C-alpha cells in the first residue's frame, strides 16, 4: 500500500466512520449499553463509551501499581508487615 492509498483510506474512514475492529468494538459497546441501560434507572444511564475497550492506555509504573495496591490493602484492613 502506498501513501496515496493510505491517505484515501484515512479520508474514507473520516467520512464513513471507523472501519475494522474499532468499528466492531463500538457496535458491540452500543449493544451492551442498550442491555445494561434497559435494567438501570433512566435518569443515570451509562454512556456507550463506558463499554468501548481502551486499547491505547499507557501501562502504570511499578510505583503507581504499588500505591494502588497499598490503598486497596489499607481499605481492606490489611497490614504492611
From TrEMBL:
Tell me which domain of life the UniProt entry assigns to the organism this sequence originates from: Bacteria
Domain (Minor tail T) spans 2-74
What's the name of the protein? Minor tail T domain-containing protein
Q: What is the species of this protein?
A: Saccharopolyspora kobensis
Its lineage reads: Bacteria, Bacillati, Actinomycetota, Actinomycetes, Pseudonocardiales
